[in-house]
Each structure stands twice: as C-alpha cells, then as structure tokens.
Design a protein that fits this description.
The structure is a single chain. By secondary structure, the protein is of the alpha/beta class. It has helices spanning 101-112, 132-142, 144-171, 190-201, 246-258, 287-297, and strands at residues 21-22, 30-35, 52-56, 61-65, 71-75, 86-90, 117-122, 183-188, 211-214, 233-238, 263-268, 278-279. The strands form three sheets. It has an eight-stranded mixed β-sheet, sandwiched between helices. A hairpin with a 4-residue loop joins strand 3 and strand 4. Helix 2 (132-142) packs across helix 3. The longest helix is centred in the middle third of the chain and has 28 residues, at 144-171. The chain is globular, with a radius of gyration of 17 Å.
C-alpha cells in the first residue's frame, strides 16, 4: 500500500494543553478487549508483547506504548438505546504512544452514551523505552531526522490496522448489534493520519460508512484521489494548531467537496493541538457535540 502520509505532521503533542481539565471522568464503560488479529500482526516480526499503560507526567495524561498486538476495546451503548451504528476511534500520540483517555476512551464513553457502539483501536507503534513520551520529547528536540525515520516504519502498518479494524467490526457487526454498512472511523492527530490512510485506501470490506478527522496529520494529498464511493467526512481543527495542521484539514475538505462528496468542517479560532476531550471553556470544548449533530444529520443515530 502506498502511503500518502507525511510523517512530520503526524505528531500528537498532548503536552500542549497540560493545564486543561477533561470533559469527562476516566471511562468506566469498557466491555471487552478483542485482539484484532488471531496471532502476530501481519507485516511485523514476531515479538513478545511489551505493551504498557501509565500516566505520563510529560503529557499529563494516561498513555499506552509499545503496541505490537493491536486490539479493540469495546464500549457498548449505555442507556439501553442503540443506534445500530459503530465507530472505531484512533487516538493520537505521534506513533510513539496513544493518548488513550483524552483521545480514546473518553470520546468512546461520550458516543456510547448517545447510542453508538464504540471501539478504541490500539494500533501498532514505534517500540520505545521506559517512557515513550519523554523519548518523544528528546527526539523532537534533538534528533528530528531519527524520529522521522523511526515513525516512517510505523505509519503503513498502523494504517493497515485501521483498515483491519473496520473490516473486523463490519464482519462481526451482528454480534455487536450494529449494521455492517453503519461502521465508521475517526482519529486524532497521528490517529487522524491512520484514519486518512483508511479514507483513501480502503477496500470493499474495509470501507467506512463515515470518517471523522480531528486535527488530522497528513500532507496535502496531491497524489491521492478521493474514492468514487467516498464516505461523508467530518473535520474539526484549530487555526492556531502549532503543527500547522489546519492546511491538512482544509485540503481534505476541498478534495471531498471538489469530488462532490459530503463534508463538514469546523475550524476553530483557538484550541491549539491535542485539545481532544479536554475542557478549557472555549468553543473547542464542544466539537464532539457538533460531531454528534453531524452523525444525526447523516442518519447514524437512528435505526
């Protein structure tokens, strides 16, 4: 698979909003964890599972690192009402970590409370040492070329995990009470880069019904064509994103609208990068409400 992702733009700087509080308490509705593949992940050498979850002082949030065996964590609809739709959520973290709460579990909990069945994807990451977030900071500051080289190897397999996740949920849709043609995907920052790869390169069995890009990473996509059966997309980002990612969001919007595919974009004046589910008393606090509005408009919140 030819990737259209430019690695330097796929960096999730959760530390950009260190003093923020979260919109929701840590999630409490995860139902089960499902291996994405029956054995070792395809395209990667066999290796012992070194996955680790801990609170990162550098990013001031819970993170997951060293994912080599991808999984899906299931959040079933709460309140007894299911929309029959599902969403796969890809957290960001520069392909060295996953911001598992701010850009994963909390969004899943929020959407599950509104009738969605949510699956948080832990996709393959760059192998790191004891603290991936500190290693990330050192590389970004002192050896960006090495960082880019390391991450470049992770991007294609992470995108493969994204496509495999969509295909898996579609194949097992009946088990989760959803329709196979109502399975979408969304991603934040580097996870948005994974989602971008899925949006451009899906196969029939991995076609998402909708796509959410939340300050996604990626290049201008000059060499990528919007698929003929492109799903509708939702985009949210902030103009003051310090990684200059708004241009990526705008390019995606222009490509979809030029192809006469459905698209909605919210470009906030303030918010920086990595706002996720954090609450700072500014309009970006409510991007997920706009996403829910859009899901309703597109028909994914009613059976």
């Amino acid at each position: 698979m030819r990737s259209v992702i430019r690695v330097p733009q796929l960096v999730a700087l959760s530390a950009c909003v260190l003093t923020a509080t979260t919109l929701m308490a840590p999630s409490a509705f995860a139902q089960s964890v499902i291996p994405l593949y029956p054995g070792d992940a395809p395209g990667s050498p066999p290796q012992a599972n070194q996955e680790k979850q801990y609170f990162s002082r550098a990013w001031n949030t819970e993170v997951v690192t060293n994912v080599s065996r991808p999984t899906l964590t299931v959040f079933k609809p709460t309140g007894g009402v299911s929309s029959g739709s599902a969403v796969i959520i890809c957290p960001g973290g520069g392909f060295m970590a996953l911001s598992i709460e701010n850009e994963g579990n909390q969004a899943a909990t929020y959407l599950a409370a509104r009738g969605m069945t949510a699956f948080v994807l832990r996709y393959r990451l760059v192998p790191t040492g004891d603290d991936a977030t500190e290693e990330f900071g050192r590389l970004m500051q002192n050896d960006r070329a090495r960082f880019d080289q390391m991450v470049a190897k992770a991007v294609p397999v992470a995108i493969e995990d994204g496509m495999a996740a969509v295909a898996f949920v579609r194949q097992h849709a009946a088990e989760y009470g959803v329709s196979p043609d109502r399975v979408g995907i969304m991603g934040f920052s580097a996870g948005g880069g994974v989602t971008t790869g899925v949006a451009f390169h899906y196969k029939p069995e991995s076609r998402p019904a909708f796509v959410g890009f939340i300050y996604p990473g990626g290049e201008e996509f000059a060499d990528a064509k919007v698929p003929a059966d492109a799903p509708p997309i939702f985009i949210a980002a902030a103009t003051d994103d310090m990684l200059s990612l708004p241009t990526v969001s705008i390019a995606l919007y222009q490509k979809w609208t030029t192809a006469r595919a459905r698209a909605e974009i919210h470009m906030y004046a303030r918010g920086g990068h990595g706002f996720g589910m954090r609450a700072r008393n500014i309009p970006t606090d409510h991007w997920i409400d706009r996403f829910v509005d859009w899901l309703g408009l597109e028909g994914f919140l009613k059976r």
